[in-house]
Amino acid sequence: MVTMKNKFNTNISVIIFSIILLFPSIAITQDNSLKFMVISDIHISNDQSKDERLISLINEINSGKFSDIDLLVITGDNVSSYYSKRNDGDGLENNRTLKLMSILKKTSKPYLMALGNHDYKIDRNKDSDAPFSIDEINEIEKLWKDHAGLEPYYSTEINGYKMIILNSMRGMYLNRRFDPEQMNWLADQMKENIPVFLFFHHPVQSDNFKIWGKPKDLATPENEEKFFTILAKYKSNIKGIFVGHGHMWISDTLFNTIPVYETASFGEGNGLNFYRVSVDELGKVNVEKNSK
Question: Does 256 or 128 have the greater pLDDT score?
Fold first, then answer.
């Protein structure tokens, strides 16, 4: 039976649909704008100034100065090492990850974190640039999962954009940046036809080769063939790549299409180093550097 209420709703739906057909420019659209902040290389340690710098940024996010951002993204080297001394317990002065999380939990905005080479150091005696065995990698990743709830790599979608956090340390046991399992996962992630931002720690070899960091640390087409093949295939969907590690402000392109940005170290200097990224309703991306 068609009630008066159902008939009214049906008539309204027909009218709205007819208006959209006649005047498509006034069709109802979803706000797909996006604003986020990118920092890198915080290097939380026993240096209190690094804690204070991060606290200062979070206070500015919470107080309203940056209240319009949708999220904060950190591209690795969140701590100088996981522990100060491996066997000295989980107090905040020794477990630097727990200290980091005690600060980040105060932010009013969601945040995403990638893992960098210093995040895989079990303590300050481990060389962050030395080879890592698969057992060392698994051990550290379990600690990050247990203490921070952090997966080695993952993705999330916000306002119609996929934010993919990659891990440029998982291939270290193969003397590479990315492991095969992660690359298979990335290929599946990219199949969905939506715009994407990529975040990870180590720089990539870009179109106009620049000093992004030590040459041995770069992800290159020679050592990361599948990674570059995936990026080339889906380059039109990739709105930007953000990396860290080199502690410098550098920007370039990849395949003359994908913007690539390296962020200066947040843990160094006197100011707050970050990129402020805005995407308008039409998908236009604007990236502003802050180093004050």
Answer: 256
Number of Cβ within a 10 Å radius of residue 69:
18
Alpha-carbon distance of 198 to 75, in angstroms, equals 10
pLDDT tens readout for residues 59-100: 999 987 898 999 999 999 999 999 999 989 899 989 999 999
- Cβ partners under 8 Å of residue 54, min gap 6: 42, 44, 100, 103, 104, 266
Residues 153 and 199: their CA atoms lie apart, in Å, by 10
Other CB atoms within a 10 A radius of the CB of residue 178 amount to 25
| Longest CA pairwise span in the chain (Å) | 77
For the CA atoms of 162, 168, 173, 176, the dihedral, rounded to the nearest 10 degrees, stands at 110
Nearest alpha-carbon partner for 242 in 66, 75, 11, 6: 75
Evaluate if pTM is beyond 0.85: yes
Pick from 217, 206, 176: which is nearest to 76 by CA?
217
**What 3-state DSSP class applies to 19?**
helix
Q: Which fold has domain 31-290?
A: Purple Acid Phosphatase; chain A, domain 2 (3.60.21)
Q: Could you tell me the two tokens for 110?
A: 């969601």
Report the distance separating Cα 114 and Cα 121, nearest Å: 15
Q: What is the pLDDT of residue 214?
A: 82
Q: List CB contacts of 33: < 8 A, sequence separation 6 or more.
A: 159, 278, 279, 280, 281
Q: What confidence tens digit (pLDDT) does each residue in 204-235 have?
A: 999 997 778 788 889 999 999 999 999 999 99
Given a contact cutoff of 8 angstroms between Cβ atoms, the answer to whether 82 and 96 are in contact is yes
Residue 23: pLDDT over 80: no
